[in-house]
Amino acid sequence: MSARKDLPTRRAEAATSGARAAGYCGLEHPDGGASCTRSPHTDKRHVDYYNGRKSVTDASGTEWSE
C-alpha cells in the first residue's frame, strides 16, 4: 500500500490535471499567481493570457521562461 499524499500535493496535482484537460500547459509561475495557458508545447516560454494584464486590451499577461 502506498503512502497517502498530503492535501497541498493533491491540490497541485488536481490543478495541473484540470489545466491539461482544458488544453493548457498548466505550468505554474515560480512566484505563483499565474499558470501557463498556452496549449502544451516543447519550448520553455510560458504565458498566462488571463492574469497579469495591465489593460483589458492587452493580448497576454504574465510571461516567463524556465
Brief synopsis:
With 66 residues, the protein is an alpha+beta fold.
What layout of secondary structure does this protein have?
Blueprint lengths: L6 H15 L23 E3 L15 E3 L1
Antiparallel strand pairs: 1-2
What does this entry look like structurally?
The model has no long low-confidence stretch (mean pLDDT 92). The chain is built from 1 helix and 2 strands. A two-stranded antiparallel sheet has the order 1-2. It has one helix at 7-21, and strands at residues 45-47, 63-65. The chain is α+β, with helices and mostly antiparallel strands.
Total of helices: 1
Radius of gyration: 14 Å
Low-confidence spans: pLDDT under 50, at least 5 residues? Answer: none
Strand order of the largest sheet: 1-2
The average pLDDT is: 92
State the helical fraction. 10-25%
Structural class: alpha+beta
What oligomeric arrangement do these chains adopt?
Answer: single chain
- Count every beta strand, where a strand is a DSSP E run of 2 or more residues: 2
Features:
66 residues; alpha+beta; two-stranded antiparallel sheet; 1 helix; 2 strands; 9% strand; elongated
